[in-house]
């Protein structure tokens, strides 16, 4: 068993446990001290993501720059990454729509509560902070443990942890897919700044759209009703339309990723024999994480339909 993979998976498991155990505890503290909602996410990410990351590097003594891939990225790559971020939006929207057949859109509920604060503050909270801290932990620490693993397997595993750490059903599918794409960007460019840029553009776009359209949401149904408020025929049409758009966007993203491979001379992506495929990536921290996540989702379903 590869020690780096085990450590990375263990780190991911601990993040998941911390989020589940500590998040509610922190929210109670925030409520007690009457901390404004705009500070909640920032403090939560610092406590639950940055602090564990610092501890990880102290314990493992791994080189920070190499592990996190703090390398410069070319202008051409940046432009392609920005386009990928924009093209990925319809894919996210379709996957979010699919999960809303079961789960309410919690993230839009949260964003609607922030509409009273300035746009620049919203961008800092929803776009800048997650783009830094979530990328450092998942595409930095966890993906760093998969250096000797085939890129597809590494992308799947980091996508899985990325989805589990978000901890709710509505975000499960699109966070997994985005986590998969982000891992490819980091591996291809050998820079964590690629996923940070993509993450920021995606979250930032959603924030700006929500802010600009906030008046349209007034006097309408709450986000907790989700797709229940949409007429059945309209819902079917919208789902099929979004499915077609998502498929087209996936094809475009694949083309752009291949372009990114050429620009960065990333040849290893197709050389499967260069990877140590005998390394076991499914170890006990992954199984524990999956069990915890499944229980969390079951409880969420019970809270919705129970």
UniProtKB/TrEMBL annotation:
Residue ranges of every copy of the CAAX prenyl protease 2/Lysostaphin resistance protein A-like domain listed in the record: 119-204
A Gene Ontology BP annotation from the UniProt entry: proteolysis
Keyword Nucleotide-binding: no
Short name of any one Pfam family annotated for the protein: Rce1-like
Keywords: Hydrolase, Membrane, Protease, Transmembrane, Transmembrane helix
Transferase in keyword set: no
Gene Ontology molecular function: any one: endopeptidase activity
Residues passing through the membrane, by range: 12-33, 39-59, 79-103, 115-133, 154-186, 192-214, 235-261, 281-298
InterPro entries on file: Rce1/LyrA-like_dom
Name the UniProt record assigns to this protein: CAAX protease
Species this protein is from: Clostridium novyi B str. ATCC 27606
């Amino acid at each position: 068993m590869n020690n780096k993979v085990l450590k990375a998976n263990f780190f991911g498991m601990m993040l998941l446990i911390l989020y589940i155990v500590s998040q509610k505890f922190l929210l109670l503290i925030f409520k007690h001290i009457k901390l404004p909602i705009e500070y909640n996410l920032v403090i939560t990410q610092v406590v639950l993501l940055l602090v564990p990351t610092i501890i990880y590097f102290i314990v493992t003594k791994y080189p920070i720059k190499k592990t996190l891939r703090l390398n410069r990225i070319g202008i051409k790559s940046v432009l392609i990454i920005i386009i990928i971020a924009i093209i990925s939006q319809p894919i996210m929207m379709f996957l979010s729509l699919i999960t809303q057949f079961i789960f309410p859109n919690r993230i839009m509920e949260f964003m609607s509560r922030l509409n009273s604060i300035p746009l620049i503050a919203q961008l800092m909270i929803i776009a800048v902070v997650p783009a830094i801290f979530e990328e450092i932990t998942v595409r930095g620490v966890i993906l760093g443990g998969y250096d000797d693993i085939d890129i597809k397997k590494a992308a799947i595993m980091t996508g899985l942890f990325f989805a589990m750490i978000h901890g709710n059903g509505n975000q499960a599918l699109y966070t997994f897919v985005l986590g998969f794409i982000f891992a490819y960007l980091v591996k291809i460019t050998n820079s964590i700044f690629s996923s940070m840029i993509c993450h920021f553009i995606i979250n930032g776009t959603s924030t700006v759209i929500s802010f600009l359209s906030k008046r349209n949401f007034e006097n309408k149904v709450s986000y907790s009703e989700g797709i229940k408020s949409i007429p059945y025929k309209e819902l079917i049409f919208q789902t099929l339309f979004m499915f077609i758009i998502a498929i087209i966007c996936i094809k475009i993203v694949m083309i752009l990723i291949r372009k990114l491979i050429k620009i960065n001379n990333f040849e290893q992506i197709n050389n499967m024999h260069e990877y140590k495929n005998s390394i076991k990536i499914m170890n006990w921290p992954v199984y524990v994480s999956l069990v915890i996540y499944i229980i969390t989702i079951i409880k969420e379903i019970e809270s919705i339909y129970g």
